[in-house]
Amino acid sequence: YKSQHYKAHSVVLNGTSSQSKLQNGGAERPGRFTFSSEPNVEDIRRMQAQFTDERDWNQFHQPRNLLLAMVGEVGEVAELFQWRGDVAEGLPGWTESEREHLAHELSDVLIYLVELAEKCHVDLPQAVLRKMALNRLKYPASKVHGSAKKYTEYKD
Amino acid sequence: YKSQHYKAHSVVLNGTSSQSKLQNGGAERPGRFTFSSEPNVEDIRRMQAQFTDERDWNQFHQPRNLLLAMVGEVGEVAELFQWRGDVAEGLPGWTESEREHLAHELSDVLIYLVELAEKCHVDLPQAVLRKMALNRLKYPASKVHGSAKKYTEYKD
Amino acid sequence: YKSQHYKAHSVVLNGTSSQSKLQNGGAERPGRFTFSSEPNVEDIRRMQAQFTDERDWNQFHQPRNLLLAMVGEVGEVAELFQWRGDVAEGLPGWTESEREHLAHELSDVLIYLVELAEKCHVDLPQAVLRKMALNRLKYPASKVHGSAKKYTEYKD
Amino acid sequence: YKSQHYKAHSVVLNGTSSQSKLQNGGAERPGRFTFSSEPNVEDIRRMQAQFTDERDWNQFHQPRNLLLAMVGEVGEVAELFQWRGDVAEGLPGWTESEREHLAHELSDVLIYLVELAEKCHVDLPQAVLRKMALNRLKYPASKVHGSAKKYTEYKD
To answer: Which ipTM value was assigned to this complex?
Structure first.
């Protein structure tokens, strides 16, 4: 089972590791935060499916149950941001513990989103490609580049 | 730029293609729905980052703005399920158009989740691995296997 | 301060008290669950405003902060329903403790909704009247009465 | 039926009308935004119950359906705030049309919240009183008055 081969990095919250830079081949602007290339979305689906199977929990994991679970996790993310006013990129001033908490809650959203898509038989990685292609058609860079006004107008 | 090499499959909503079976090497139970292996989460991050850069939209994509955008997309998923009562795996009785609509809204949730994690400098794929490891410790299969009662007790 | 005059009923979760029937003058179908007439929405606004003032918390209660707090509370409601499958009116099978928990979470949603409307200068009770009038125009009873099909067509 | 007696004010979004001041008897600080005293929460419940009855829609309005509908409406509120950065009290710079849109979406959240509480047999106005009493015990004004640090520590 593939998940055995993964090792969680010692530092999850890390945008500047040499490993990340190598993985991304320098195509990004210097210092831009990047993700690890593994696990991919299908890996996450498979690991979560095994987790659910082992516990005999598929009986509870109907689509609407998973949707409500995802709503619950989004609520937990919101609670981490609710009293802070505007928050800048990279979360300056957040403690390591707060960052770790956020990493857990964002992960929970992704885990339930992936399982919801699975139960709905939506091939999520491919669906994202299609949606991104639609977004490119809907908001052509040449037309929407720039001002907030244009942004608001285009984002219906 | 890697995204040019992806081609959206002609059928996004598809759990039984021979390609999927081959990709997963028969390790799953027969006919189980699987995702495509690409794009991975980092690919999605990079494509969305390029999309945002091209439009000069980073000025609008602070963490809390992206969080509210994700809440909006979760709301759109909820609207697709709200009047249906219980929904079974595979969405029997949904039209192709309804499935496509759902695929779009689930994709929007993922796109904003990925961009939110990026702006928070959370390495989402690795964070998921860590959270899954914690879930395995929290809900040992031997203890929680089986009844809804046990499930409810162990959850939170 | 008016809130001193309110007394919480000994039983909050109660659809059949003779008091409720009297309050509603028999206009409803027999046994239909009704609310108490107090506190009204303005009372709730005033009590919460005093609560916030006493703690010097207005500095944290900008509209977007309150919106995220409301999202968090909606998430907590979702967590109470997430693993249950379909739930019938009156919540048969729920314990008193679960009902009380739900009453608390629904209250939190209302409290933040009211404070959000206040900070946005939206007269919420009057706004509801106007929205209900619009809904009556949008979904005429004569046209939408009956089938789920018609319901789905007319909704959105 | 009582709802016939209500008239929507010509200006819903209005914090400074002499009428509002009179309704509230001068107990608030001068110019503080207040709500109208009607309709109360029970009025809203009754009007929405009649609306649902007339359309034979109770068959669709199970608790979880109403919860998902409320999630959808919260998502629509989020969409109105998502690209704005921090928003100050009173929504300076918002157009009348944007304010009206917000009033509609906040109303939709309240309408579904009220109907959800009704179907769950939670006496929402009384439940709010009890929750507010608990909040007063949990966050004593003398202890939490003042700094953001104390606020964060005391919240959850």
So the answer is: 0.84
